C-alpha cells in the first residue's frame, strides 16, 4: 500500500468513493494498532476533518484510541456526550451544532459539528465508536453517514480478525 492517500472528485460521494479502496488497503496490515492508526489518519487528512478518532469500550467507559487532531478527552462514560449516546443507543448520531446537544462534552472549543458511529464486535456488542468532528457547523449529513458506515465495516474487519 502506498504511503500517500490520493482522494479525487469534487463531491462528497466522489471523495469517499476514491478513499474507500485505499482505506481497505491500509486495513490489510496485520497489526491491529498500525492498521487502525493509518485508517484514522487517512480518513482525517484525506477529507480534511478537524478531528477523527476511535474511542474503545473498556468496562463502563470509552477510552481514547487511535486518533488524529487536537488533544482529546481521554475517557467518556456510558451514555455521556455524543460518543456515549451513540454507544448506549447502538446507532449513528449526527450533530449539526455540538453546543446544542444536551450533555455535549467539549473536548475542543473549536469543534462545531460531529458524527459518531458505533463499531460492532462479532457478537453484536459495541466495541468502539468512530468519532469525526468538524470546525464548521452543519458539516455532516446522510452522505457522510452512508460512507462512514463503510469505513466502520473496514474498522470492524480489523478488530474482528
Write a structural description.
This protein is α+β, with helices and mostly antiparallel strands and 161 residues long. The chain has one domain (12-159): GAF domain (Beta-Lactamase). The chain has helices spanning 12-26, 32-46, 81-89, 142-159, and strands spanning 51-58, 61-68, 75-77, 93-95, 113-120, 126-134. Strands 3-2-1-6-5-4 form a six-stranded antiparallel beta sheet, with helices on both faces. A hairpin with a 6-residue loop joins strand 2 (61-68) and strand 3. The mean pLDDT is 94.
Describe this structure in a few short sentences.
The chain has four helices and six strands. The chain has 161 residues and is of the alpha+beta class.
Largest sheet: 6 strands, antiparallel
Q: Name the overall outline.
A: globular
Number of helices: 4
Q: Structural class of the helices, strands and pairings?
A: alpha+beta
- CATH class type: Alpha Beta
Strand order of the largest sheet: 3-2-1-6-5-4
Q: pLDDT average, as an integer?
A: 94
Please indicate the count of domains: 1
CATH superfamily: GAF domain
Terminal residue distance = 20 Å
Helix content range of the residues, please? 25-40%
- Work out the strand percent: 15-25%
Assigned CATH architecture: 2-Layer Sandwich
Spans where pLDDT lies below 50 across 5 or more residues: none
Q: What is the C-alpha radius of gyration, as a whole number of Å?
A: 15 Å
What key phrases describe this protein's structure?
4 helices; alpha+beta; Beta-Lactamase; single chain; 161 residues; six-stranded antiparallel β-sheet
